[in-house]
Amino acid sequence: MTPDPNRPLPTETFLHNRTLHVGNQTLELAYLGEAHMAGNIFIYARVQKVLVLIDVVFPGWLPFASLGEAKNIPAYYQAHDQILQYDFDHYIGGHVGRAGNRTDVLIQQEYILDLMHNCEQTLNESATNNSMIGAAALLGPVSTKNPGNKWAAFKVYLDVLGQYCANITNEKWLGRLGAADVFEYENAGAVFESLRIDYGILGPFGIS
Predict the structure, then answer these.
(1) Is the backbone of residue 31 left (phi > 0), alpha (psi -120 to 50) or beta?
(2) What's the CATH number where 127 sits?
(3) 30-35 long-range CB contacts below 8 Å, 24 or more apart?
(4) InterPro entries attached here (predicted)?
(5) How confident is the model at residue 207 (pLDDT cuts 50, 70, 90)?
């Protein structure tokens, strides 16, 4: 790791929980899993009812590309339930210019579930022969123009499915979350990869 004087290594670490007392202030720290990435911690000020968890919920906005560049998408989904287990009035998620509240967390959780549902339906629809996004309809023409290049055909397949799912999802979320038109495609792509890798939903490419 390249030394960075602006981000020195910690002098204290903890495995699951740590309570900090500074003057008359108390912060409860908890590591509940990867969420956005390994090491992301919940920081809770119980008296003030303030919860901090960076790069998971983006109050009022769509998550940044690929669900905030989440490294573990199942854990990212779970983090929303973990957040809602806290008693808080104010949520600090980082970026996008404002703090949030419990309603913001619930709205993003609804969005995440919609996106996952739409992507799963899209993936399953691509396994049907008469669909415009069916694997046969998409892979054949690309394979003809790119003989022997299977990645070219599969990339077109994933790109078309990603845009299709993004369009469906945006029918509900454009105008409800900021910048839904900016990162929906990238978020759909991240969900497709998670569905295939983490959940074994393979559409037309299942093992038979």
Answers:
(1) beta
(2) 3.60.15
(3) 32/79, 32/82, 33/72, 33/75, 33/78, 33/79, 33/82, 34/71, 34/72, 34/75, 34/76, 35/70, 35/72, 35/75, 35/76, 35/78, 35/79, 35/82
(4) RibonucZ/Hydroxyglut_hydro (IPR036866)
(5) low
Query: pLDDT > 90: what percent of the chain?
Result: 66
Q: Can you give the residue range of the structural domain that contains 49? A: 17-205
Question: Is 57 in contact with 80 (CB distance < 8 Å)?
Answer: yes
pTM to 2 decimal places: 0.89
Element (H, E) at 98: none
Q: Cα–Cα distance between 39 and 36 in angstroms, integer?
A: 9
In a domain, 3, yes or no: no
Q: How many residues does the chain have?
A: 208
Q: What confidence tens digit (pLDDT) does each residue in 139-186 have?
A: 778 778 888 888 888 888 889 899 999 999 999 999 999 999 999 999
Contacts of 84 (CB under 8 A, 6+ apart): 102, 105, 106, 109
Q: Tell me the three state secondary structure of residue 124.
A: helix
Query: Is 37 contained in some domain?
Result: yes
